[in-house]
Amino acid sequence: MSSKSLPANRWLVLIAVMLAFLPVVLDMTILHVAIPTLTQALNASGTDVLWIIDIYPLLMAGLLVPMGTLADRVGNRKILLIGLFIFALASTLAGLAQSPAMLIAARAFLALGGAMIMPCVLGLIRKTFENEDERAMALGLWGTVGAAGAAVGPLVGGLLLEHFWWGSVFLINVPVMLVVAPACYVLLPRVEQTTPGKWPIGQALLLIAGMISLVYGIKAGFGGKQSLPVIILVVVLGCAALTLFARMQLSASKPMLDLTLLSHPAVVAGLLMALVASGALAGVELTLAQELQYVLGKSPLEAGIFMIPIMAAAAVGGPVAGYLSSRFGLRLVASLSLLIAAGILMLLAESDFHDPGVLVPTALALLGLTLSIGLTASSIAIMGSADASKGGAAGALEATGYELGTGLGITFFGVFLSSAFRHAIDLPHGLSPVLAEQASRTIGDTYIVAATLPASEGAALIEAGKAAFSQTHTLLLMTAALVIAALAVVVFVTLAGHRNPSRPHH
Fold first, then answer.
1. Is the pTM value of this prediction over 0.90?
2. What are the CA-CA distances from residue 267 to residues 44, 339, 390, 409, 491 (Å)?
3. Count of CB atoms situated within 10 Å of the CB of 260
4. 411, 219 contact by CB (below 8 A)
């Protein structure tokens, strides 16, 4: 590769796109520690809270592939700049939201901006770095920024909430975008190769409608908010939309999402790992953030600091997974990391968070590390099984798996928590039926109801809520452990015929 064919400012381009990517990843986790504060400030119900967190990864999961194909048609630079503008505007709206519904709408708008930014960042790195070694280094740096961004999210959230109101966790994005957007405008190449053809907007809408219907059905089903016929109808419509989308992809000459990749067992195993590991990581972080603040009375900053081990270890899992996979083989590394993660979840389920000692932080670090190794192993499995010509399609499939896993993880953990919490709480006598119903939904609702009661009755209700949440949290971590242990077995069996790509000879 001659040096003259490489853009001279390529490392500056990398810095610009990594800065554009950082707020998108921060927004995945920054909200976890802000939830208790935000719940009380907006009087948000348990279902509101789930939608506030969830609408972002779920819509991103539905939008990533369509936005990636749109960027191929009209150019990465154009879509990235529009995405940055939308992200800054949506962050402002989210920070100034006055009700849960306004915040959910703003988060949906944020997801649109994020879904425009994310595929463009990868597309620009691919196009800017033509030299394979440099591209590998650039993608490695990009991955580290992604992991580090998600890792410091709760800490940044905690720091902001220590000094400002909850809206600051969104408004922090605005000054970042004011620096990043002009940098991207100046540095990114104006002339790009684009793919000819129409953009199939109908398929994009079908994918999003199917995903949202399915998740809404699951939430409404467990939340008991809708009648059974309505829930069945929504779930059936969601399944029908996704089935129709899949059939369109399989029959199209140039599909939006290349589902033929699922004929590789390693891709299926990788996708399952991406879904379950990212879901478990998001769900555990969210549960932990609530336990630390609602039950242990920690401030958002203290909760963010407590969660540093899980995040910091997750940030180093990538390089470790790459080294171990080339040394011991993907099958062993992937299944063993999941099995260890399951064991650690069981240990955490039985641990006393009131007296964490060294054991709990160590277990959290090991959990972050093993789940992160599982996630990187999923990436190695997917990308290693796809032909070079299908690298973009495989990347889109993998990114969709992560986002969908995060969204579904938060859905299942949240729905499971509220369902188990309702059964576990032993409400004090004398509460009116309406207040009793609200107080038994989630621990956030317990605190909202307690604030309306006389001091002694409020304190008794909060104690009942704390006891129920600790009990629920144990059951939840045990269930997550069993799911991940089952996944370890499935991955071990599915990757039985997988051969590691032979190392190149120099």
1. no
2. 39, 20, 12, 20, 11
3. 12
4. yes
